[in-house]
Design a protein that fits this description.
The complex is a heterodimer of chains A (462) and B (289).
Chain A (H helix, E strand, L loop, with lengths): L9 H5 L18 E2 L2 E5 L5 H16 L5 H11 L7 E3 L1 H6 L3 E5 L11 H13 L4 E6 L3 H13 L2 E7 H6 L1 H9 L3 E5 L6 H15 L3 E3 L10 H24 L5 E6 L3 H7 L11 E9 L16 H4 L1 E5 L1 E6 L24 H8 L3 E7 H15 L5 H9 L5 H4 L2 E5 L8 H9 L14 H22 L1
Parallel strand pairs in A: 4-14, 5-6, 5-8, 6-7, 9-10, 9-14, 10-13
Antiparallel strand pairs in A: 1-2, 2-12, 3-4, 11-12
Helix pairs in contact in A: 3-5, 5-6, 5-10, 6-8, 10-11, 14-15
Chain B lengths: L2 H4 L6 E7 L5 H13 L5 E4 L10 H12 L4 H10 L6 E4 L2 H6 L7 H9 L2 E5 L9 H10 L2 E6 L5 H8 L6 E4 L14 H8 L7 E4 L5 H9 L4 E4 L1 H13 L3 H24 L2 H6 L12
Classes of the chains: A alpha/beta (462), B alpha/beta (289).
Amino acid sequence: MSERASKPDEERNADPGSGSASTAGDDGERPGTYGEYGGQYVPEALMPAIEELDDVYERYVLENDEGFMDDFEARIRDFGGRPTPLQHAEQLSERYDFEVYLKREDLLHGGAHKLNNALGQCLLAKYMDKERIVAETGAGQHGTATAMAAAHLGLDCEIYMGERDIRRQRPNVFRMRLNGAQVNPVEAGRGTLKEAISETMRDWATTVEDTHYVIGSVVGPHPFPAMVRDFHRVIAEEIREQSIEKFDALPTSVVACAGGGSNTMGAFAAFTDSEDSAVGLVAVEAGGSSLSVDEDRGVAPNSASLSTGSEGVLHGARTKLLQDGYGQIMESHSISSGLDYAGVGPELANLVDTGRVRAVAVDDDRALEGFHRLSQEEGIIPALETAHAIAWLDEADSAEVGERVVLNVSGRGDKDLESALEETAKRDLDIAPDMHVFDAQAMTDSDEVAETNGQDVNEGAQ
Amino acid sequence: MSTIREAFADEPAFLPYLAVGDPDAEASVEYIEALERGGADVIELGLPFSEPIAEGPTIQSAVVRSLEGGMTPTKFFETVSRLTVDVPLVCMTYYNLIYRFGEEGGPKPFVERAAAVGIEGLVVPDLPAEEADPLREACDTYGLDLVFIVAPTTRGERLERIMDRVSGYVYVQARLGVTGARADVSTRTTESLDRLAEWDVPKAVGFGIKTGEHAREVIAAGADGVIVGSALVDLIAEGHNDGDSTAEVADRLEAKARELKGGALEGAGIEAEVEAENGGEPGARPERK
């Protein structure tokens, strides 16, 4: 038997099997747990900051201390442009045997729902007297929103972004720089969201005393999953109100794409209570190229942790993960950087386990079809993340989703144009327009000429 | 008294860390033996996890080399079971590998297997006291020590929560941030040691210790041991990159270990008289500058 530093706990030593209830707390569940999921699995150096954050979350966000939430609501309206519209999608409604309504989060300032959380957390940092913001970003939407919010509030801002994502989402890198943020490339692993989160946690562990970590999704240690959900809850509340205004009823289903799950939880948050159980909630994950996994190589060619993952601990929370038999985290894949993550928010994982949320997956090819469909039929170029949810409508059964489906358009696709066209060119999609009208070959040629000229100059200088 | 605790009983302890499997298991066995020859009192064996959020670039790279070399928890245990060293061994890894090991879920199968191959303690950098009770129980069941990290930011109730659960030694994090060799020893080390002055458990300081001189300073500041990882892992990485033989790298590790252990002893030498007055109990030393 090992010895304790002081006052060995006799009860525990007397009966090693009796203490398992302590994980759930003496009087019920520990705060920040969702069934089996959630918790606070972070290095000790961060725990004091997490505890402080938990306090200010309760005071400012839940109790509106110092009028914090009023301040937030005024800013997200004036700076962010809320409320966003709920729009009847006429062509899609004609196409399917249910009515489709689009919750236009792509119209929020920055072009995605991400500002809700980024502005909320930056404002909280301000109330906490922190001077510096760090954040990770995958598709660059959260980084962009955080850079905007930090500039708006006069905070220093550094963004960590995987180098692969920097290549995939260059326009967003420029936007962050324009807003005055420093963008730090992360080279570890595959250079995507997972590595960016790890690296941001390392920064925070060093700078925690004057820095707040604006995590970009409903992931991480408590209170992040709850707090990020609460800043996005406005999406669901507006859906509720606007649905009643528009068709005098609640939606029969709400559909949202799910990576970490922030737009998903935001769109679902006002419907998860039991009295709303008639509202179907569908989380559409990235099926990548295949739902199978290669355990030997530690690669999952998808990001469908809700559909295919297993329980484990990553980035501060117990949740569903893509991992091998030993618990090593797998490299995920998705055509959309924003869904390309091996984990998912713990609350969403629990809602899927309890059956309240239905998790489905859409693969890369069909997501691209969804991207083109919304662009052509509704005049809205969606983010590749959102495109997964749009594509899923094609297989939605009206008997299941009901008559009025609200789809959360989590973001716009401007950031994705380059990769969407590149990926389209690799495939034979009936729906895709012929992009050769732009004489792409000639454009490529002129690029090459420019590059060659550049090299000549360099060589000449040597 | 656990053998880990005994390792601190007579003189300041030197606790080297390396990532097992960096660059392969055979080399690790030789390196571990070299560290023992160089004066290690406890050896921290890193079991590589794919998301080492508490590690700086040096150990991240070691983790990558080890994982690319095919290291798994099963191979880790096999490697440890082949070791013939006499000093106590502590496994340092992240909670998901502990949680996921074996069929039944939860930490018990991992701890059982660790105990079976001769591991006597665990350090889990992403497991704060709040989440540690299931692992603490498993460690009690199989007789393992569970080491906790105390950070420069740890205060008040958090210290008590850790004190109630820690055994073996307390890992005093010398500075904020991630692991990695630094050019100086943080003044915050002294402050942290002061906060723990009353704790009846050996205090081992880690994060940033690189030279014998650092080790001397840390021990002189009141620590009972020094933990050194990145400075040793750097030697392994350099040797690996330069194509040096395992034996050459092992010699360098042994020499570095001697330097660090020597520094630690020197740090205690200054205190030898005071030590005797206080009965030489680890952890019972008065606060001093």
